[in-house]
Structure formats: C-alpha cells, structure tokens
C-alpha cells in the first residue's frame, strides 16, 4: 500500500470517527462536563495527527485536510442521527439540558477548530524529526572532530 492509499485509509477512519465523536462530545459537553466533551474531540484530533504524521509531507497534508473537512461535514450528519436518540434516552432516565444557542455554536466552533489540531501535531512531529536529525549529525561531526584532534600524524 503506497502512502497516498494509507492517507486515504486513515482519513476515512478518522472522518467516520469524527462523525460519532463530535456529536457525542456535544452531548457530554451539554449534559455532563464541558471539559470532558472537549477532551473527547481533542483525543480524536491528536490520534489523527499522530497517525497521519508518520506519512511523508504531501500524503499527510492530503489526509489531514480531507479528515478535517470531511469530519466537520460528517459530524453534522452524525449529530442529526445521534442527538434525537441521546435526547430520548436522557429524558427517559434523567433530565436533558438544552444549551443556549451561543454555547452550542461555541462548542461546534471549538470542536471544528480542534480537528485542525492535527496539523499542529504533524508539524510538531516534523520539527522534532528535523531537530533529532540535526542532533545526530552534530554528534557525528563532534565525534569525528574529537577523533581527529588526537591523531598523531605529525612527522
């Protein structure tokens, strides 16, 4: 499987995950804990960023971009399916808390923004790889310089 195929496979997996996690995160955000609801979305974005960052630049950017935009659209479709079921279940077992429109829009804005967190993870991992490469190169050059300093090539 080439890198583009891997990127598309990961994008499909994480976009479908977003279709479920974002609506569930909204219900958790509204009825249980705002922090925990946002952490669900953050964990999905971090997992996508880590998994896609193992690919070269072009396939990784393709996969992350496709995941972010498709995840946003699919999560709204998932919300239409998941929300009524969760609401019925909560109303039959407890009290359902409706969020004011401003807070609901705030959640979805933060959630869509957190999907883009995958880019930050990718670039952080890319920077870490570059830094580790420089450290290894400098270590090799330093070891070579030390070895050359103690050579007895003088006549």
Describe the model.
The structure is a single chain. It is built from five helices and no strands. It has 155 residues and is mainly alpha-helical. Helix 1 packs antiparallel against helix 2 (34-52), helix 1 (3-31) runs antiparallel to helix 4 (101-115) and helix 2 runs parallel beside helix 4 (101-115). It is elongated, with a radius of gyration of 23 Å. The termini are far apart. The model has no long low-confidence stretch (mean pLDDT 87).
DSSP, total strands? 0
Largest sheet: none
Radius of gyration: 23 Å
Apparent shape:
elongated
**Which structural class fits the helix and strand makeup?**
mainly alpha
Percent of residues in helices comes to: over 70%
Unreliable parts = none
Strand fraction band? under 5%
Q: What's the quick description here?
A:
This protein has helices spanning about 5-30, 35-50, 55-95, 100-115, 115-150. With about 160 residues, the protein is mainly alpha-helical. Helix 1 (about 5-30) runs antiparallel to helix 4 and helix 2 packs across helix 5 (about 115-150).
Chain-wise SSE layout:
Blueprint: H1 3-31, H2 34-52, H3 57-93, H4 101-115, H5 117-149
Helix pairs in contact: 1-2, 1-3, 1-4, 2-4, 2-5
Question: What attributes does this structure have?
Answer:
mainly alpha, 155 residues, 86% helix, single chain
